[in-house]
Write a structure and sequence with these properties.
By secondary structure, the protein is an all-alpha fold. It has one domain (2-129). 77% of the residues lie in helices and 0% in strands. It is built from five helices and no strands. Helix 2 packs antiparallel against helix 4 (47-71) and helix 4 runs antiparallel to helix 5 (89-137). The protein is elongated. The protein starts with a helix and ends with a helix.
Length: 138
C-alpha cells in the first residue's frame, strides 16, 4: 500500500483516502503490538483495542478485494493466491490481500484470548471468594 501511495501522482480522490487509511491502520497496529509486546495480565485487559484493530483490518481486506475486482484489472478471481509474493502488480496486491486477512484474524484471536483470560481469572476469583466465605461461616 505504501508503495502505491509513493508512486501515485494523480489528483486526490476517495481511493487514495482508502489507501491512506490502510497505511494508518498498519502503522497503528505496529505501535500497539510493540506496546503490548511485554506479556502481562495488563495486556489482556485491552482486548477491545484488539477487536477494534481486527475490524479495521477486515475493512482493509474489503478495500483490497474491491480494488482487485474493480479497479486494477487483475480479474474477478480475487482469492486466487497463485500469484502471491510475485513481483507483478497483481501479485503485490494479492499479497496485501492475504496479509490483511491474516492480520485481521490474528488481532481477532488476540482479542478473544484476552476476553477468555480475563473471564477465567474473574471466575477463579469468584470461586475463591465463595470457597473462603463458606469456610469462615463454619
Amino acid at each position: 500500500m505504501g508503495q502505491f501511495l509513493d508512486y501515485y501522482k494523480g489528483p486526490l480522490n476517495w481511493n487514495l483516502g482508502q489507501h491512506i487509511f490502510s497505511v494508518g491502520v498498519a502503522g497503528l497496529s505496529v505501535v500497539v503490538s510493540l506496546v503490548l509486546l511485554v506479556p502481562s495480565l495488563g495486556t489482556f485487559r485491552v482486548w477491545a483495542i484488539d477487536i477494534f484493530i481486527s475490524l479495521a483490518w477486515f475493512a482493509i481486506f474489503g478495500i483490497v478485494v474491491r480494488w482487485l475486482r474493480i479497479e486494477d484489472g487483475c480479474g474477478a478471481r480475487v482469492y486466487d493466491l497463485s500469484k502471491v509474493a510475485k513481483t507483478t502488480f497483481c501479485g503485490r496486491w494479492r499479497t496485501a490481500e492475504a496479509f490483511a486477512f491474516i492480520s485481521a484474524v490474528a488481532w481477532l484471536l488476540s482479542g478473544i484470548l484476552g476476553t477468555s483470560v480475563l473471564r477465567s481469572r474473574k471466575d477463579k476469583q469468584q470461586n475463591k471468594k465463595k470457597g473462603s466465605g463458606g469456610a469462615n461461616a463454619a
